[in-house]
Design brief:
Elements: E1 11-17, E2 21-28, E3 34-41, E4 53-54, H1 56-72, E5 84-91, E6 96-100, E7 110-111, H2 119-126, H3 138-141, H4 150-160, H5 162-169, E8 173-177, H6 178-186, E9 196-198, H7 199-202, E10 208-209, E11 214-215, H8 217-222, E12 232-234, E13 237-242, E14 253-259, H9 260-267, E15 276-280, E16 284-291, E17 302-307, E18 316-323, H10 327-335, H11 343-351, E19 361-363, E20 381-383, H12 391-417, E21 424-427, H13 434-444, E22 448-450, H14 456-468, H15 474-478, E23 485-487, H16 493-510, E24 532-533, H17 542-559, E25 565-567, H18 581-593, E26 597-599, H19 608-617, H20 640-648, E27 652-654, E28 660-662, H21 664-667
Parallel strand pairs: 1-5, 5-14, 9-12, 15-21, 21-22
Antiparallel strand pairs: 1-2, 2-3, 4-7, 6-8, 10-11, 13-14, 15-16, 16-18, 17-18, 19-20, 22-23, 24-28, 25-26, 27-28
Helix pairs in contact: 4-5, 9-14, 10-12, 11-12, 12-13
Bound molecules: adenosine-5'-diphosphate and SN-glycerol-3-phosphate.
């Protein structure tokens, strides 16, 4: 409805960068409804199993397109771009970007929050702390040592990506969560861009000290991150700077930044200690406001900064239970199992055709389990199947899994806080699913209060940004905020508890499944479960193999002398003093079965198949991150331990081409 002259209010724009989508939303100050919005889906790249990357340039491109389109709707509503007086930013947290401050170019794709490539980095860090205690840094950072957090991703980038290493040496490296990348780029990039973040995003890096609200020198040292490459930390609500990128947003101030889950807490008006909200998106994140108290969880929850609404106001903290897979499980049912076509309609309708899951439980631990378990070795299971199970039961079990995971968090929260929650505010796209909402109330036994709009994150960022420029005082805004629907529990305590006990049994069965220490590129050729597979080859006997090795050496000597070193069987080497167990295993297997293993850097991105392809078929690998480089140093490795393990382990099996397949149990010894 167009506004009449004289009734125009100031507008606040919000950039909302989620895991799957970028949105630009425009709010009229003092109203908690969207005036105009536009969104675009993002590209997720999964170069290996468990990896998840995004394109930092695509994020910026989408922000500009979304802003243009949302702003383009303003004239018909009686407004213009000039009515937007400030911008807020809310973003997926933990996702990490490294870029060059001189060129402004990203040095690697963004590593998404749910990417688990850093499992081995976690092990390396755990090896340095007493008792390999994953909670060792919790009293400083509020977080366990897990692949989830940015410090691990930064360390991985520094250790594994040549361009990042080089930029670091040349002091051109900048790291940031997505908010930092957006602000830096929008405020001028290489020409004076602001390298900043807010306390909520910084609190997700595992580098910030929750007391000082600054980078912690000990944590930076532990992860080998130079503080110069990190952004300055600001409050969530103050004028940081002005957009200077020549886009439609040029000239508008930026005055609010909040990680998207903390933003939803603000948007949900959970500004009093003891109030909690749960946001159901790809993952699910339950935050409980603990006021100025930093509650240290002893039950697997995170302590995080909820918000700091101004540089001179104290930070407010929250306890958080993070669930890696919620809506993501529906996508899995659609895209991987093809059980449904439409995540929204089908999950509600098809699951609603049965009255229970028929005792089927689905633990969607696709990349491990987050809170309260923090088990990177967990993997997804569907259990309790019978001859009567239908897809309806499985879909319903996937919905229930979201609810049971929420109960896991609530149980932990109640123990940590000593006082059970009496109601749960909910938001996120999945909350449009009435069946899910009713199941949630039934499985936690308290009322579930659905927000009037699913996107509370953008609203929270608008409140923070508007507050900083005096157009959206939190107190005034709060009067307008009421939940739209309430779902009341319809189950008895006994029924609820019996089902929850079964869920816990299912969770137990999902634990300890993944023992992979090193991920392997999943290509069309080797997509056969997560086991090390040596390549198919056409040798009929050892003599042929040996001849072939000589040929390959010649190829190497002739064509790639200094750039790619062929590592022939009895000549083990390593680079930079690092001996990688995975490579040892491959080298040993190569020696045993007379297969040539070419050698690059210890943590290059290739599989052995890429390497064999190069030598056998003279085919250059087309993987973009390839950084073949000469070996700088030769070191003898100790083969004995790995040989012993493999020699004595009956679990080496052979595929149809007589290639050895080393099963998980062997690799767990590595
Ligand atoms: N009504 C619904 N019922 C069930 N699942 C849903 C519903 N709406 C969305 N989803 C699922 O929730 C996930 C999260 O969606 P979205 O909020 O767009 O993603 P994100 O914010 O994590 O980028 C989607 O992957 C989709 O599978
Ligand atoms: O983009 P979402 O909604 O999946 O949120 C992701 C979280 O911020 C990760 O911590």
């Amino acid at each position: 409805m167009p506004v009449k002259d004289g009734t125009k209010k100031s507008l606040v724009g919000v950039i909302d960068d989620g895991t799957k989508t970028v949105r630009f939303v425009i709010y009229e100050a003092e109203r908690s409804e969207e005036l105009a919005a536009y969104q675009l889906d993002k590209t997720e790249v999964q170069p290996q199993e468990g990896w998840s990357e995004q394109d930092p340039q695509e994020i910026i491109h989408h922000i500009r397109i979304c802003a243009e389109n949302a702003i383009g709707k303003l004239p018909e509503l009686g407004y213009t771009k000039d009515d937007i007086i400030t911008l807020g930013i809310t973003n997926q947290r933990e996702t990490t970007i490294a870029w060059d401050k001189i060129t402004g170019q990203p040095l690697h794709p963004a590593i998404a929050w749910n990417d688990i490539r850093t499992s081995t980095t976690v092990d390396a860090i755990l090896a340095k702390v007493p008792d390999r205690n994953k909670n060792y840094l919790k009293h400083i950072s509020g977080l366990p040592i897990s692949p989830y957090f940015s410090a691990l991703k930064m360390k991985w980038l520094k250790d594994n990506v040549k361009a990042v290493k080089k930029a670091s040496k040349e002091r051109k490296l900048l790291f940031g969560t997505v908010d930092s990348w957006i602000v830096w780029t929008l405020t001028g990039g290489p020409n004076g861009g602001l390298h900043i973040t807010d306390v909520t995003n910084a609190s997700r890096t595992l580098l910030m000290n929750l007391d000082t609200l600054n980078w912690d020198p000990m944590l930076c040292r532990l992860f080998s991150i130079h503080p110069d490459s990190l952004p300055n930390i600001y409050s969530s609500s103050e004028i940081y700077g002005v957009v200077k990128d020549g886009s439609v947003l040029d000239g508008i101030r930026i005055s609010g930044i909040l990680g998207n889950q903390q933003a939803a807490l603000v948007g949900q008006n959970c500004l009093q200690a003891g109030q909690a909200k749960n946001t159901y998106r790809s993952g699910c994140f339950l935050l409980c406001n603990t006021g100025s108290r930093r509650v240290q969880s002893t039950h697997g929850l995170l302590t995080t900064v909820a918000y700091q609404l101004g540089p001179d106001t104290p930070a407010v903290y929250a306890l958080e239970g993070s669930i890696a897979v919620a809506g993501g499980a529906m996508k899995f049912l659609r895209d991987n199992l093809k059980l449904i076509k439409d995540v929204v309609k089908d999950t509600e309708q098809i699951a609603g055709q049965v009255f229970s899951t028929g005792d089927v439980y689905f633990v969607p631990a696709f990349s491990g389990l987050y809170a309260p378990y923090w088990r990177k070795d967990a993997r997804g299971i569907i259990c309790g199947l019978t001859a009567f199970t239908t897809k309806n039961h499985i879909i319903r079990a996937a919905l229930e899994a979201v609810c049971f995971q929420t109960r896991d968090i609530l149980e932990a929260m109640n123990k940590d806080c000593g006082m059970p929650l009496s109601k749960l505010h909910v938001d996120g796209k999945m909350t449009s699913n009435n069946l899910l909402m009713q199941l949630q109330a039934d499985l936690i036994g308290i009322p579930v209060l659905r927000a009037h709009s699913w996107d509370m994150s953008a609203l929270g960022a608008a409140v923070a940004a508007g507050g900083a420029v005096g157009v959206w005082a939190v107190q005034r805004w709060r009067r307008h905020h009421t939940p739209a629907d309430t779902f009341l529990p319809t189950t008895t305590d006994d029924d609820r508890d019996a089902r929850y006990t079964k869920w816990k049994m299912a969770v137990q069965r999902s634990l300890g499944w993944a023992t992979t220490k090193k991920s392997i590129t999943m290509t069309g050729q080797n997509k056969r479960n997560s086991i090390i597979q040596l390549p198919n080859h056409s040798f009929d006997n050892i003599t042929d193999r040996k001849n072939s090795i000589n040929d390959e050496q010649t190829i190497e000597q002739d064509s790639r002398k200094n750039s790619l070193i062929t590592h022939v069987i009895d000549n083990p080497v390593s680079v930079d003093g690092e001996i990688n167990a995975y490579e040892e295993l491959l080298k040993y297997a190569a020696r045993k079965f007379s297969i040539l293993i070419p050698f690059r850097t210890p943590k290059h991105e290739h599989t052995i198949l890429d390497d064999i392809d190069y030598f056998m078929n003279k085919k250059e690998c087309d993987y973009g991150m390839c950084q073949c480089c000469p070996i700088e140093k030769k070191l003898q490795t100790n083969w004995q331990s790995i040989e012993d393990i493999i020699e004595n382990d009956p679990e080496i099996i052979f595929d149809s081409d007589n290639n050895p397949i080393v099963v998980e149990r062997v690799r767990s010894h590595l």
